[in-house]
């Protein structure tokens, strides 16, 4: 796990990934980083994850979800992203940094959110353009890669799920056209592009599961795929499980393996990894990269300090974020 690994045109220092985690450290409406955003990310960079996927950055105001989230919706935002990248690289010259591009769709804050079953083709084409422009900003700001957020009931993940997407036209769930169009548009920007992919909705009777995720992975060419799932389906299968479940998405990895898709591109699996021993289960299954979210809120130095501080999965971090506060670990006594 402490060996290097190549993703697209860059190399990561090791196999540990910081999975995107909204920190709630930007201005309320406009998504501009505050000082604590920069402080937070410098410390994280010093902890030597190989790939640091920042936090969901909204590509359009209409796609903003929650408060104090990061924006990448205007050219003005480039300077803030560039500054963050520069100070992270000054703290750790091996760090590789990814910008997660998000459109919240129906979960957005705006009054007239984009409803996937009512959207017109023109609405979707506008979204494609917004992702493309955001990717261009990410490139100008100096990121190593971008990641399309197609998980957790955000816009892209709803369009690939037959639970949410009831359309029968070319945007029907089984054709994943919006995700495909966004990928193609972002590809023109010439920056490596990965995806955080919903691989199981856990909703009985609906087909967004490991098999349908495999269809998408087989059909589209991403530079890396991060396996995720859950969301607003069954509570015990939430993306951010409170219990002690480890390695939630092993069944997806097994399906990828069975379909010879595990080696098609680099795969990151995130969800229920607390330490390097847990991660070994995934490495043993042939997964090259393991993602951590809550663990790194608890202890962003755990890869180098002996892992003294345990995350108890109380989920106060996400509760605070939902209340419009900073998503810090309550055990660390910071906000
Ligand atoms: C406070 C908080 C904020 C999160 N924000 C994001 C986000 O911005 N983008 C995303 O894809 N996932 C987000 N997640 C989900 C995590 O990336 C991860 O998929 C999930 O927490 C499971 O991993 P873990 O068991 O290592 O925490 C967030 C999770 C938490 C706890």
Automatic annotation (TrEMBL):
Residues 1-116, 117-302 form the NADH:flavin oxidoreductase/NADH oxidase N-terminal domain. Keywords: Flavoprotein, Oxidoreductase. It comes from the Eukaryota. SUPFAM superfamilies: FMN-linked oxidoreductases (SSF51395). Pfam families: Oxidored_FMN. Gene3D superfamilies: Aldolase class I. InterPro entries: Aldolase_TIM (IPR013785), NADH_flavin_oxidoreductase (IPR051799), OxRdtase_FMN_N (IPR001155). GO terms for molecular function: FMN binding; oxidoreductase activity. This is FAD/FMN dependent oxidoreductase. It comes from Hexamita inflata.
